[in-house]
Amino acid sequence: MKKPSIDLSECILCEICMDVCPEVFKLNELGYIEVADLSIYPEEGVDEAVRNCPSDCISWEEK
Ligand code: SF4
Fold first, then answer.
1. What is the pTM of this model?
2. What CATH number was assigned to the domain covering residues 2-62?
3. Which of 5, 26, 29, 38 could join 61 in a cystine, given CB atoms 3.0 to 4.6 angstroms apart?
């Protein structure tokens, strides 16, 4: 199964991913973007976030 992954060292907290795909990308209590724990991820929404992330720091990883 593949899961979205965020390179937090590149993330500028623009929150675009949260606007594009709020069911997957959340702001946690530490102020970082995190990926929700889902059994299946919406491919189109995540791909849209990947395309729109200005820092190019969202990717799919196999788990
Ligand atoms: S779109 Fe990219 S840079 Fe912006 S908050 Fe999401 S992961 Fe971070």
1. 0.94
2. 3.30.70.20
3. 5
